[in-house]
Amino acid sequence: MSLVIPKVRTQTVQRQNQRIWRSRIVSILVTALIAWTAWVFLTPFYEQLNASLGAASREPGQPFGPYVGQIFNYQNQELKIYNVPINGSTQQLALLEPGRTSSVFIDPKNPNTPITYEGSYRALERLWTFSPRFSNYAEAWDRLPGGFVRGLSNTFIIAGLSTLGVLISSTFTAYGLARFNMPYKDFLLGLVTVTLMLPTVVLFVPQYILFFKIGWVGTWLPLIVPSFFGSAYSIFLLRQFFLAIPKEFDEAAKVDGANPLQILWFILLPLIRPALIAVAILHFIFVWNDFFYPTLYLAGKTDLMPVSVLMRMFSSSYGSSTPHLISAAAVIATVVPMVLFLIAQRPFIRAITMPGLDK
Amino acid sequence: MLLDNKKKFLSLERVEQRWGWFFLAPWLLGLLLFTAFPMLVSLVLAFTDYNLVTDEPTRFVGLKNWVSMVQDPQTQSAFMNTLKYILIVVPLLILSPLVLALFLNAKPLWLKGFFITLFFLPNLIPGVVTGLIWAGTLSPTGTVNRFLQGFGITPPAWLTEAAWVMPAIAIIGLWSIGNTILQLIAALKNAPKELYEAATIDGASSITMFFRITIPLMSSVLFFNVITSIIGGFQYFVVSFLLFNGQGGPNDAGMFLMLKIFKEAITYRNMGYASAMSWAMLLITLLITQVLFALGKRFVFYAGEERK
Fold first, then answer.
1. How far apart are CA A182 and CA A192, in angstroms?
2. Which of A285, A289, A357 sits opposite B220 (nearest CB)?
3. Please, which of A53, A206, A242, B264 could form a disulfide with B274 given CB 3.0 to 4.6 Å?
């Protein structure tokens, strides 16, 4: 009898181990699958990075990306280095005299004795070295129409002012809709949802006519001023956050003699700070990336354009001759939204995941 | 003094209302100035031959804009392409994030947060850059074709052959499913565990649980994304504008309603015609969303709501 017990115990331990291993194998398989999918998914991005560090065009056989052909300097000549099969072994030799049927190579280590290779040099494989051209970025920085300095500062000013406007006006509206009772309130709430759900871009024709008539086309005003009158998405988000704060907070302050503006400023705003950050970043990135409205209102005004519009001008005028510079400029234009996202990932994700969950 | 006395007589309710209107005033003013007023004006313009730059007096032309809208072959292809986008691309934009979200939320997966971030990254890239990246990726020497050639497949001319434009647009669209993935994962995480436990005790299979618990819990997010993706179809602009230089591509296969309106309004300054098209688009969207909301009432489950 005494022998049976340890036997059972080892069996359960074995079974447990088996289970752990099985779940580990499942984990490895699932993770590998997702990693592969993510790799495929992000390939275009990776290629963009690669292209931004490469040359304008590729020579035949040159691998994609930041690779340059290996060169041997010999008597003020730049000789290309090839893998040459000679006497049964492959040697790395520099091509001195190319020929169809036989070519003359020299050994970089011993340049004074030419080696003749019987066969076409074209069939040989060149040697490439990994050598990223970071200078592409400096060149793209200067060559972007209007310049990156002007473009980036334009984008910052437009996106910054627009974000400021949205923050102020949407906070007010969301607070009003969350805390005060008034006639037609259901109708007003419905208006927020309708403006949220409608393709707002449909409004661009009438808005364009309006801004054209009052002389705002060709200025930043149509891109900034409407933000100071609220944005439906931000109002919707902020209202949800206001509703989540118990009304007792307001009541207590009211008893102490605070008016609604003071309640908003001293009590509620500190409580919804994460939401404000989320709304600000979401809106900032949206305006930063926006292409449609600046194209519409800033046509022909290169010195006022944000980076997105300048990028398109750059690519349509130089895209075929300098694709590597376009890629470099594209990477630069992407950095700011990426950095903002990485800094404030948590509030950002919350702002994105909210509207689908709450009705 | 007088003012003070008056204030005392205002009931608390009236005071509250006044504050409410005070806080709503900027938004309401903006709605009137930048939305309602221009929209009304454009409704009138939709029946005129109004052109922003000619000096000729504007005339009422009745239904002419609306008739030529139906007859204009470019508008027809723009409409058909938008419809194709909604019927073919939108389902892909809903189903593929659903599958990915289930994987990304699955227990065995390691490094969940890292992978979720990876799938979200393309959403942060400016639309212009997305267009440029994909113009390169789908070019004859681009990654996709090199990949296909690796398998001995003759690659299609994605952006120059009319039949391949919509598949190309679908592939590019799939690049920005990160938002939907995030929302679906949040919905999955919010799922109450008790439901699954109770179902397990009742002997429900995992397939039953998926269709009876998981899908209903995600239905509100799915519904929200169906609506926004359809609206996105009506607003489809930047990528097509970049790929085909605003011209609609081969055989107008990349022409969309939004692009056509932009062309009429901004390139030709035909504001009357563009206004009519905007209004037509608005009415179509309203109709579609209304139908969807009516359907949604039946199929979409919101937490905290009782099911009839």
1. 16
2. A357
3. B264
Q: Three-state secondary structure along chain B? A: CHHHHHHHHCCHHHHHHHHHHHHHHHHHHHHHHHHHHHHHHHHHHCCECCECCCCCCCCECCCHHHHHHHHCHHHHHHHHHHHHHHHHHHHHHHHHHHHHHHHHCCCCCCCHHHHHHHHHHHHHCCHHHHHHHHHHHCCCCCHHHHHHHHCCCCCCCCCCCHHHHHHHHHHHHHCCCHHHHHHHHHHHHHCCHHHHHHHHHCCCCHHHHHHHHHHHHHHHHHHHHHHHHHHHHHCCCHHHHHHCCCCCCHHHCCCCHHHHHHHHHHHCCEHHHHHHHHHHHHHHHHHHHHHHHHHHHHHCCCCCCCCC
Interface residue B281 vs chain A (CB under 8 A)? yes
Q: What is the pLDDT of residues A211-264, one digit of tens each?
A: 998 999 999 999 999 999 988 889 988 998 899 889 888 888 888 888 999 999
Nearest CA in chain A to B174: A41
Q: Say how many CB pairs under 8 Å bridge A and B.
A: 253
Which positions 221-280 of B are in contact with A (Cβ < 8 Å)? Answer: 221, 224-225, 227, 231, 234-235, 237-238, 241-242, 245, 258, 261-262, 265-266, 271, 274-275, 277-278
Of A30, A312, A323, the CB nearest to B103: A30
SS3 content of chain A, % helix, strand, coil (to 5): 65, 15, 20
- Min mean pLDDT across A115-129, A165-179, B59-73, B102-116 is at A115-129
What is the average pLDDT value for chain B, to the nearest integer? 87
Per the CB < 8 Å rule, is B182 touching A349?
Answer: yes
Residues B134-179 have pLDDT tens digits of 988 898 878 888 888 888 888 888 888 999 999 999 999 999 899 9
